[in-house]
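Hi R.,

As promised on Friday, here is the backbone we talked about, encoded as structure tokens. Could you run it through your design pipeline when you get a chance and send me back a sequence?
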């Protein structure tokens, strides 16, 4: 088990930038933003599947002045947007709370397709387009996402085209 104690200097700067990018630097106190970040990232850091507990870890913040949709029906008409940034181990102060002598937990076999399908079917689906993807690859990915989502909304994150490493501006698409 790993515990996030706080942010490093780099993490503090990244979170301040995150607050500014989302327009929340006045609305959300910095200490609350740190608490929210730790609450969201801790389960990612401690994912029971060690292959999924790897960085980067993602934290999204709603853009100030936008309203999150209350249902899938409102998704298309909502003005809601998020700013999603990735956080790395160098951004966080992490303490390893598991002793070296502890017996590693036993993991059940997880079918990745079931996990993806489950996330999409409850409206938490996200697909990331990559630079250099052909139109055919993008179409195939979006068609599969439509099947997985079973009519629920999902997010399409455009490819990173410029800027700082690890930053993605994501909106509802």
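Update: got your reply. Pasting your designed sequence below so it's all in one thread:
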């Amino acid at each position: 088990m790993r515990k996030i104690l706080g942010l490093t200097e780099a993490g503090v700067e990244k979170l301040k930038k995150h607050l500014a990018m989302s327009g929340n630097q006045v609305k959300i106190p910095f200490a609350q933003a740190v608490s929210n970040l730790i609450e969201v990232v801790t389960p990612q850091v401690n994912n029971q599947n060690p292959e999924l507990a790897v960085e980067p870890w993602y934290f999204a913040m709603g853009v100030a002045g936008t309203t999150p949709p209350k249902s899938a029906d409102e998704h298309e008409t909502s003005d809601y947007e998020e700013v999603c940034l990735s956080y790395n181990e160098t951004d966080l102060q992490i303490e390893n709370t598991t002793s070296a002598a502890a017996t590693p937990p036993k993991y059940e076999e997880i079918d990745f397709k079931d996990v993806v399908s489950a996330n999409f079917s409850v409206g938490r689906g996200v697909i990331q387009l990559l630079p250099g993807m052909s139109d055919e690859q993008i179409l195939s990915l979006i068609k599969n996402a439509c099947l997985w989502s079973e009519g629920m909304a999902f997010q399409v994150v455009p490819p990173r085209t410029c800027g700082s490493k690890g930053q993605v501006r994501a909106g509802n698409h």
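One thing I noticed while checking it: Residues 166-173 have pLDDT under 50 and may be disordered.

Thanks again,
M.
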